[in-house]
């Protein structure tokens, strides 16, 4: 890993700006489709402005980071540092595949969050809270102060050095990925992972259950249409709704119109007693 001493003065200044901006990332939730994407853009603005000279290149970089992003706050700067290094490489090498930036960012969110959530939420916070509570239970006002210090000092240090670590290993990391062909694997794997996430979110979040029944000749009870649908394909209606929304998005239909249309359809079906 390259130390900070090997960074230029301009790079250190740029990364300091990225570091302070990164604290706003988790306060910038903009809905399920982007989550912390606006915070990512704000965090990486010094990088984009430094490495890209034309408005067209800057616009492409900004659009590239409008994708969904969520990772443990105190360690997500490793991804920001790595992305900053990749943006630098992209600005210097015309043959660089810019889609790899999004792919690497998406593929690292899960592993980074797995480590970060386990350590910060499951270990550090519990230890800090235990010590703070034990002091507070004796009537000491230092309990809250000790808790905040024990938790936030390590978090601050890791947040700082993970940024420089990600940026420093970035060049070598990217070179190895390209030489080994790993960048293609990462891109393909992240695409597959994204599709799996969309599929699982569709199955768990998009609900439809009709209450309509059909009277079958000779049967004592009316048959439920929902049972027939489930026998055909469980979740077929949510899947069709999702595919229809995707098709409309591909046709450049405004996403707000799609959402309002689905809401209106749900209200109408509810009023008609269909579901």
Automatic annotation (TrEMBL):
Any GO BP: phosphoenolpyruvate-dependent sugar phosphotransferase system
Membrane-spanning residues: 126-151, 157-174, 232-249, 255-274
Superkingdom of the source species: Bacteria
Name of the protein this chain belongs to: Mannose permease IID component
Entry GO CC: plasma membrane
Alphabetical list of InterPro entries matching this protein: GatZ_KbaZ_carbometab (IPR050303), PTS_IID_man (IPR004704)
Pfam families: EIID-AGA
Keyword line: Membrane, Transmembrane, Transmembrane helix
